[in-house]
Amino acid sequence: xxxxxxxxxxxxxxxxxxxxxxxxxYGTTPQAGDTVLANGLAITIDQDITVTELRTTAGxxxxxxxxxxxSGTRVLACNVTAGxxxCLVIGASSNVTLTGNATAGTSSxxxxxxxxxxxxLTMTGNCTGGSTTNCTGLNVGSAGAVATVTGTVTGGSSxxxxxxxxxxxxxxxxxxxxxxxxxxGFNQSGGVAAINATTIVxxxxxxxxxxxxxxxxxxxxNLSGGTSSSRIAATVSSTGKLEVIGNVTGGSAATAYAxxxxxxxxIVIGNVEGGTNATAHAINSTTNAIYIRGNVTGGSxxxxxxxTSANQAADFCVVYGTVTGGSTSGIGIANAGAGRVDIYGSTVNSGGNATSNTGSGxxxxxxxxxxxxxxxxxxRLP
Length: 382
Fold this sequence. Notes:
disordered C terminus; elongated; mainly beta; 382 residues; 46% strand; eight-stranded parallel beta barrel
């Protein structure tokens, strides 16, 4: 089927369309199977559409750039690929259902999909980051934006080339985010996110699959460090809040943490277990505010939790469960910092010790009757 483009800006339904290969008039609006180029023009999607793809790349005749902006309630069946500009813009007050993939482009802010206004997007398809900084498959950047994505999310080949970026608004992701060679699968600097996953495994030595610096994110699913060095599933820093409803497990290579925390808050409702490398800790925290409702176990070599915080007054780790040493030398909780560790449950030494306190902080164990989950300290994130 042909590639077509509009000859002037305006509404999709009233444009004159040309064939990109010949430059001749197409004679109709784009049809199923067509690829549609914006031709450097601003096009308003004022009807439901089914085409193969929307693009802001250059064609044989069509110019690069432009955009497609939705209006009203729309059903779109198409892939979306950015070139030098953002391709699909979810317009103010739009309610869009999209079946198709979104791929970022080759220039900064060349988002596959941009949500910068109060609107709703329900998407079934994959989101992939691009090849330059700030080039994101789906960018959610309005307090009134609500996005639900079911599909695979993968970062791109440049820093900040994310699969999905959430700076404000609300996002639900049904799928496992994966880092690209340089871009995170999911980046959050604000807003509220929920990720329903299976097992998220650290995929890149450059950036984590999930990066949270602000806002709150609840992951329902497991997190695991990767099989090569520094493959980290999730990082939490600054004022970010991460809650994991699932198990958190260290990887099999050096510093392949499931979670690396340098700030913010971490909650785990599930079990924590170190990995099979001496530095493949399940949780590695330098500035810790950690709540665990579940058991913590050292891996064969890696620790369940390693703490190196320097702030005695502010940093803490609270565990409601049993803390057990690993089968060889992995420690359940290794406190090498100044913070306090409170264990409400019991400790069991194995090949590795249940706990180790080599810093200036403290570890306090309080025996609790009724099993490891007798108390539930967790307050769900806002």
